[in-house]
Amino acid sequence: MYVFCCSYAHNVAANNKWLAFVSTTVETSAPEAELAPGLALLGPIDEKFVEVVDVHEPLADGHG
């Protein structure tokens, strides 16, 4: 799991607000439940967006 936070000090949010991302590789059919431990670290959340996207890997190593 990856948790990233930044704030007003980084010029990305209003004073006394934070912007946070919680991400993981989905392993079950309940992706939002998989994020619950990371979301719990954040405290009260004003607004939340959940998105599941496919991860792609290259078909070749780029040589040749």
Quick summary of this structure?
With 64 residues, the protein is an alpha+beta fold.
Describe the secondary structure blueprint for this structure.
Elements: E1 2-7, E2 18-23, H1 31-40
Antiparallel strand pairs: 1-2
Tell me what the structure shows:
It is built from 1 helix and 2 strands, in the order ββα. The protein is α+β, with helices and mostly antiparallel strands and 64 residues long. It is flat, with a radius of gyration of 16 Å. The mean pLDDT is 93.
Features of the shown structure:
64 residues; 1 helix; two-stranded antiparallel sheet
What is the string of SSEs from the N terminus onward? EEH
Strand portion: 15-25%
Class from secondary-structure proportions: alpha+beta
Overall helicity? 10-25%
